[in-house]
Design brief:
Helix content is about 90%, strand content about 0%. With about 110 residues, it is mainly α. The chain has two domains: about 1-30; about 35-110. Helix 2 packs antiparallel against helix 3 (about 75-110). The longest helix has about 35 residues, at about 75-110. The two termini are about 40 Å apart.
Amino acid sequence: MPDQPTIDTARHRSTLVDQIGGKARRKSHAQHNPAQVWFGIGMMGLIGWSVAVPTLLGAALGVWLDRRHSGHSWTLALLVAGLVMGCLNAGRWVASQNQKIREETEKQDD
């Protein structure tokens, strides 16, 4: 009995071909639009600052509170709080940018 591809195998191949085709289109688009590559690199810096600034502000506020009120380590607590806030903010921003990219990709695929 010859090996014939099953429906699941054919569907998997079709999905794989679609994924590879999408990646090839994105790569070609990036090669023809190098400004978008630099834009992406700049966004990494923006994400870093969106985490670093709240962290440093929390640490600075904590140092100020430690000098005013003793008893608890406000520096450590507010440093961690600033880090968490920065990470949540950066994550939310990355998710929204990812959604925009997906919407643009879907428009280009149609």
